[in-house]
Amino acid sequence: MNITVLDDYTDLVRTLACVSTLREHPLTVYTDCERNLDVLADRLKDTDVLVLLRERMRVSAELITRLPRLKMITLNGPYPHVDVDACTARGILVCSEHARTSYATAELTWGLIIAAMRDIPRQMMRLKNGQWQNRTGMGLRGRTLGIYGYGRIGKQVAGYGKAFGMAVLVWSRENARAQAQSDGYEVAATREALFDEADVLSVHVRLLPETRGLVTAADLARMKPTAVFVNTSRAELVAGGALVAALHAGRPGAAAVDVYENEPMTNANDPLLQLDNVVATPHLGYMEHDQMENYFSDQFRRVLAYAMGKPYGVVNPAALDVKR
After folding, report:
1. Residue 31 belongs to what domain range?
2. CB neighbour class for 274 (10 Å; exposed up to 12, middle 13-18, buried from 19)
């Protein structure tokens, strides 16, 4: 089988130990970000199995119809960017399972929080430019960490906050709020109270049609002028333009972000990146070597199982009945 990996921006896949498991199958890895339909169709015309790196590329019905050899798409986690119905109609299996807990994302979240609270990026640049400190940052102990979304990553971030001596305040779905209370954390009296009271507010919610634009301009306007808003989940969870406007208005006082509506973000003049009160990283959350070794090990095991006629993690089993 011809296996293709797309959008491996850092050319990491070829260095992973798990690649050796595919020794009997040709593997092609693309490291650029190609979105032109004609170019993609040409690149993938001989592909049997497409391995996606989370939601980096949209697999549309139009693209699928131009890939006559494609038999399987595999990834971990949600798949809103894949037209599953179009795949099913053409007998293409889409295989996915719940992603493992991303400790790497939780750790990066804390890197961003500390960087923003202590103004590390700006002070670092001053030092490199021959200037000394000019601003006093804020510590974490005794302050309130707001967690919006108490899932696997939210739980990890809450635990790290407790280790830093912060009061942890949670808002999430009803069953997750009950779990947070059981875990010893305080639940906000209301959703609005979370934004009112948090000194650091970190969002950990899955992007779904019903969560798009979940955080509104009114929510951000509730935050303290000293507060930091953190997003390592998905940019689209925040209403379009709301975060930039809120930062200009001074509530919250700063933001730390790892995700953008258009990725890869290569526009240095983007309004968000122009703000001095923003710490920004290029979607590094889950991009950590051990995390990627686990991620691709999962994908390649599914590929080999398919090759042996024993596919698993199939999200569109009806595709198995389609004659190709």
Report:
1. 3-100+289-321
2. exposed
Q: Which of 283, 293, 301, 302 is catalytic?
A: 283
Please, what's the b/e burial string for 275-292 (b: 16 or more CB within 10 A of its CB; e: otherwise)?
Answer: bebbbbbebebbbbeebb
Mean pLDDT, the chain, whole residue set: 96
Residue 324 has pLDDT above 90, yes or no: no
Q: What's the domain count of the chain?
A: 2
**Phi, then psi, of 201 in degrees rounded to 5:** -120, 120
pLDDT digits (tens, 9 = 90+) for 167-201: 999 999 999 999 999 999 999 999 999 999 999 99
Contact 282, 257 (CB under 8 A): no
CA 102 to chain centre: 10
Compute the distance between CA of residue 221 and CA of residue 225 in angstroms, rounded to an integer.
9
Tell me, what CATH number does 209's domain have?
3.40.50.720
Q: Are residues 117 and 8 in the same domain?
A: no
Based on the fold, state whether residues 69 and 195 are members of the same structural domain: no
Please tell me which residue in 234, 288, 293, 302 is annotated as part of the active site.
234
Query: Is residue 100 very low, low, confident or very high in pLDDT (cuts 50, 70, 90)?
Result: confident
Question: Do both 147 and 268 map to the same domain?
Answer: yes
Give yes or no: 234 in active site. yes
Q: What is the DSSP secondary structure assignment for residue 238, as one 8-state letter?
A: B
Looking at the fold, whether 126 and 225 belong to one and the same domain comes out as yes
Indicate which residue of 55, 107, 263, 293 is catalytic. 263
Residues 7 and 81 in one domain: yes
Confidence (pTM): 0.91
Residues, the chain, total? 324
CB contact at 8 A, 48 and 2: yes
288 given a catalytic annotation: no
Asked if 122 is an active-site residue, the reply is no
Q: Are residues 113 and 261 located together in one domain of the fold?
A: yes
Regarding whether 240 and 113 lie in a shared domain, the answer is yes
